[in-house]
Amino acid sequence: MTTPFALIQPSSLNQGSIPGAPFYKQFLAQGDSWFSIGALPFSATTNLLYPSGLDKRAGVVNCADPGFTLEKMLDRMSDPVFQQLLCGAMEYQWDGILISGLGNDVIHALSAKASEPQERRLLATAVEWGDSTSPSRYISELGWTAFEKYAMALYQDLDRMRHASKLNKATPIITHTYDLATPRNAPAGPSGPWLYKALTAYSVPSSDWCPLADELLGRLSDLICDISTKISGMHVVKTQGTLTPAPEGSTGKQGHWENEIHPSPAGYRLLAKKFSAELQLLFP
């Protein structure tokens, strides 16, 4: 039997104490909608942390916000509280740093206009596709190489923040991979759809939307895993492939998906089971 995390907003911290403490373990979380909100109304879905749990009570101080790129998560101006809690004046001793990042960075990169140079966009224009039948023909390889460097630099920045800490120099970083989303016209209220818009804008044939999305998200998973081999104490929970993709051409909630890129409560329960099991191994 597992015990749900106690999810704590940073604003509820008071004079060096964490509400509900002591905990078996206490984590600092930073992330995007997969750690926060991915649908409207807010009650329509949960997140990867909400249904999670270990076999003992753990606390998570959660700084995540929907729409956050990893770049914004680590920016002292966009979110000064995370930096303060990790290595600043509000620093605590954390057992682990939980990160949900790079998904929105990919979404943002996909939205670059076709008029941008190849190294500043992830998608290739029609004149650049060539004769290959591989879904990679639709990817700007110069743009992907630039994205890899960008992602590595961000995790190096997180590593520097960690090493600047008095208490958390050796605190492990735990992140996850993103599951395979189906490009479809399924927005989250006024936001999105995301993949659907980008692939439509670049005139990618709809028959290749799913193979291309799988290629991009597979590359992202591989990239996160590769970065983890270069950052000391970084662990990746390989959750990709857990959920059943939504049917092509569908809209709205479908099975494990609440909208185009956010899982449903049932989907998050499956992801959380894997995430929690990995945490249990790291923190027995």
Which series of helices and strands comes N to C?
EEEEEHHEHHEHHEH
- The helix count comes to 7
Q: Give the amount of beta strand, in percent.
A: 5-15%
Poorly predicted regions are none
Q: Quickly give the structural class.
A: alpha/beta
SSE layout:
Elements: E1 3-4, E2 6-8, E3 25-31, E4 53-54, E5 58-62, H1 70-74, H2 80-87, E6 96-100, H3 103-110, H4 141-163, E7 173-176, H5 195-201, H6 209-228, E8 234-237, H7 265-282
Parallel strand pairs: 2-5, 3-5, 3-6, 6-7, 7-8
Antiparallel strand pairs: 1-4
Protein name: SGNH hydrolase-type esterase domain-containing protein
Organism: Variovorax robiniae
InterPro entries: SGNH_hydro_sf
Account of the protein in words:
It is a single chain. The protein has helices at 70-74, 80-87, 103-110, 141-163, 195-201, 209-228, 265-282; strands at residues 3-4, 6-8, 25-31, 53-54, 58-62, 96-100, 173-176, 234-237. It has 7 helices and 8 strands; from the N terminus they run βββββααβααβααβα. The chain has one domain (3-102, 151-194, 224-279): SGNH hydrolase (Rossmann fold, 3-Layer(aba) Sandwich), CATH 3.40.50.1110. The protein starts with a strand and ends with a helix. The strands form 2 sheets. It has a 6-stranded parallel β-sheet with strand order 2-5-3-6-7-8, with helices on both faces. It has a two-stranded antiparallel ribbon with strand order 1-4. The model has no long low-confidence stretch (mean pLDDT 94). With 284 residues, it is an alpha/beta fold.
